[in-house]
Design brief:
Number of helices: 10
Shape: elongated
Structural class: alpha/beta
Order of helices and strands: EEEHEHEEEEEHHHHEEEHEEHEHEEEH
Bound molecules: zinc ion
Helix content: 25-40%
Distance between the termini: 17 Å
CATH architecture of the largest domain: 3-Layer(aba) Sandwich
Length: 381
């Protein structure tokens, strides 16, 4: 706190990371950072250690040059990737330590280094693990095969039924709360510079796949999703073992958009999934973490300050975009503290966050350090 009369910026970020596996796909050990081709390679380089560290360095710079223009509080946590439950509790109990005017977060990306952007919305998340149990033990597939429900096959069928031929999610009520954008808003969103060819080339796929009637930008920005994140069961080791397994499992995540809520979607998923199970199996659904979707207004003082700061350092006005990812705590900040967040991130979608060989551009890191003090300076006025 340098002056109670000045605005207070709360800087939020996280130092926890996603698991590193498959480890053999990393060119360098994930926790021994390497600088190569103008990029820092390490798990967390972009998401979010590198971006948090820009704030530390920018703060150091402002202190050294006596140019800190606002009060600042840092709130750096270690459970973002698993849903921020403990921070949520802490925020509720420590509101007096979190008085401020805006929450500044660098945990998102820009479109390209010459096309700056600010994410003006984030999808929420409902994440579950399902367990399908058939017979009470693994069975000989010759003796019992063909006569007893196979949990893996049952699970595959159940999962397959969750989307129709248009990749529309079939869970009753799933889309009921979805805020439909107007034609104008959709047109505006689709003006975001984007090349489907480049996108496919980057992923080495011949075609994309998603909900019929929506563009790739819409599918990742304003539409909810249901994705299988992992599936296992039976015998997958070396050689052969012809079992009819007792159990099969899957992890399933649903990205949510305004005004869907985590609790409701988790509940209707769970009810539906149990309902579609044949009598030959038992189904359990265990909720993992979740997070509510948010829209951050582009007419707020903080958004405008971020836009001006980026325009100053990049020489171009940033484009507002809708991010496909989730930062679970943002909705809670709004609800508990009444504070809007501004998502001034500097990563690139190609930074391989959550994947092997995650990296962060030195250009982006330096631009971040340059832009943050400008944001503080503009916020002071
Ligand atoms: Zn992150």
């Amino acid at each position: 706190m340098i002056d109670p009369k000045l605005p207070t910026v709360i800087v939020y970020g996280h130092y926890d990371v996603q698991p590193v596996d498959p480890l053999n796909l990393w060119d360098n050990p994930p926790f021994e950072p390497v600088i190569k081709d103008g990029k820092i390679y390490a798990r967390g380089a972009c998401d979010d250690k590198g971006q948090v560290y820009m704030h530390v360095k920018a703060f150091e710079l402002m202190m050294k040059t006596n140019s800190l223009a606002c009060n600042v509080r840092f709130m750096i946590e270690g459970e973002e990737e698993v849903g921020s439950n403990n921070l949520g509790t802490w925020v509720k109990e420590n509101k007096h330590r979190l008085k401020g005017d805006v929450i500044l977060i660098s945990d998102t990306s820009i479109i390209a280094n010459d096309i700056p952007s600010i994410e003006a919305g984030l999808r929420g998340l409902s994440y579950v693990e399902v367990e399908v149990t058939g017979p009470n033990r693994d069975l000989h597939s010759g003796v019992y095969g063909g006569a007893v429900g196979n949990p893996i096959q049952v699970l595959c069928k159940m999962i397959d039924s969750l989307k129709d031929e248009n990749n529309h999610i079939t869970i009753p009520g799933f889309y009921d709360q979805v805020l439909e954008l107007s034609k104008e808003e959709r047109a505006e969103l689709n003006k975001t510079p984007f090349s489907l060819d480049e996108y496919k080339k980057d992923l080495k796929v011949d075609d994309v796949m998603g909900e019929a009637g929506y563009t790739t930008l819409e599918r990742t920005g304003i539409r909810p999703t249901l994705e299988l994140n992992g599936i296992w069961g039976g015998y997958t080791g070396e050689g052969s073992k012809t079992v009819l397994p007792s159990k099969a499992f899957a992890k399933i995540s649903m990205r949510l958009v305004p005004n869907q809520t985590t609790d409701n979607i988790t509940k209707i998923f769970s009810d539906h999934f149990k309902k579609i199970a044949p009598k030959s199996v038992k189904v359990e659904v265990r909720p993992h973490h979740g997070g509510e979707p948010v829209v951050t207004p582009t007419d707020s003082v903080a958004y405008k300050a971020a836009a001006k700061a980026i325009e100053t350092t990049f020489g171009k006005k940033p484009i507002p975009t809708r991010g496909g990812g989730s930062i679970p705590i943002v909705a809670l900040f709004e609800k508990e503290l009444g504070l809007k967040s501004v998502l001034m991130g500097f990563g690139l979608d190609s930074d391989l966050i959550h994947s092997p060989n995650e990296h962060y551009g030195i250009f982006n890191y330096m631009k971040g350090i340059e832009t943050i003090p400008v944001f503080f300076g503009i916020s002071r006025r």
